[in-house]
Amino acid sequence: MKNNFFATTAGIICTGALIGLLAILLQKLGNPGNMGICVACFERDVAGGLGLHRAAIVQYLRPEIMGLVLGALAAALISGEFRPRAGSAPIVRFVLGIIAAMGALVFLGCPWRAILRLAGGDANAILGLAGLATGIFAGTLFFRNGYSLGRSSTQSVVTGAAFPFLIVCLLVLALVFPQISGQPQSGPLFYSVKGPGSQHAPFLASLGIAFLVGFAAQRSRFCTMGALRDLFLFGSTHLFSGLFAMFAAALVANLALGSFHFGFEGQPVAHTVSLWNFLGMVTAGLAFALAGGCPGRQLFMAGEGDADAGLFALGMLVGAAMAHNLGTASSGAGIGAYGVEATLIGLGVCLVIGFAHCRKA
C-alpha cells in the first residue's frame, strides 16, 4: 500500500464518490431503479442466466460482476498484490455466502444497494441499513471474544486464478451467446424479457464501468462491512468516510437528475415489510462480518487471488438461486413464502458458526 493514493483518506473518499456516481450513471443507462450496482441482486441474475433458478424476471449474466472481479485482478497484478491463498475454513465461508445472499434477498439488496436505495429516497433502506449495522455489531462482539476462521496459507497461482478464470468463462459465454431480441434464451443462457433482469445498461458500458470500480476498490480496500466494523471496534472513520462519500455522491446525482423520490411506498424493486427489511439485513450483516467482508469486497479479494473469498462469492451465487427456488426471496409485493424461516435459520447458523470459532468460548 506504500505510495498508494487510494489508501489515504482522500483516496477512499474519492473511491466512494466514484462508486456512487458510476452507480447512478448505470441506472441512467438502463439498470433498474436504485440498483446501479448490487452484488447480491446481480449474482442472483447471473444464477438465473445460467439456469440455476426458474424466476424468469431475474435472468441475465450481469457484466458488472465480471468487471468488478477483473478490475480488482488488474489492480492486484499491477501493484504486485496478487497473492494466491486459501484454506481458511472454506466450507464455512461457502455456507456464509449462501446465508448472506438469502438474507440480502429478503431485504432486496446488498449493502451497496441499501446505500443507493436511501440515496434515491427509498425510506425502507433505513431499516435495511439499521439491520446491517446491527448484524455487523453482533459480529464485532464475536471478534472481541477471539473469533477467527483460522489463517489461510499460500497456494499455487492456479488456485488463486481459478475464480478469475471462471469469471472470464462467464464473459466469453455472454459474448458468444448474446441475447436475441425478445427471446428468453440464447444457446445455453437465459435472458429476462420483462422485469428487473430485462433492465440493464449496454453490456460493454456495464463491463467497463464495473472494471473501474473494481480497480479503485481493490486499491483502496473499500468495504461496507469493514467500514462499520472499524467504526464499532476502533472508532476509526477512514473506511466509513468512503461509505459516506458514496451515499453523498449518489444523492447529489439523483437530485440533479430528478430521480430522488422520498417515501416508503412505490419504490423500485422494494417492499415495505419493515421488520423483515431489518432482520434480513441483520442476518446478512452478521454473515458478512463472520466471513470478513461485504459482497463487493469478497469479489475484490477473489480477484487478487483469495480462493476463500471466491468460495464465499460462489456461495452467494448458490444462495441467490436457492432463494428463488425455495421461495425465500422477496419481491415488490412483500417477502417470500418462506422468507421468515430462511432469515431466522440463517441467523441461527451464523450464531453457531460465531460461537464455535471463538477461542474464548
Automatic annotation (TrEMBL):
Keywords: Membrane, Transmembrane, Transmembrane helix
Pfam families: Sulf_transp
Residue stretches spanning the membrane: 5-26, 65-82, 94-114, 126-145, 157-180, 200-219, 231-253, 273-293, 305-323, 335-356
NCBIfam families reported in the protein's UniProt record: seleno_YedE
Name assigned to this protein: YedE-related selenium metabolism membrane protein
Organism: Candidatus Desulfovibrio intestinipullorum
Classification lineage: Bacteria, Pseudomonadati, Thermodesulfobacteriota, Desulfovibrionia, Desulfovibrionales
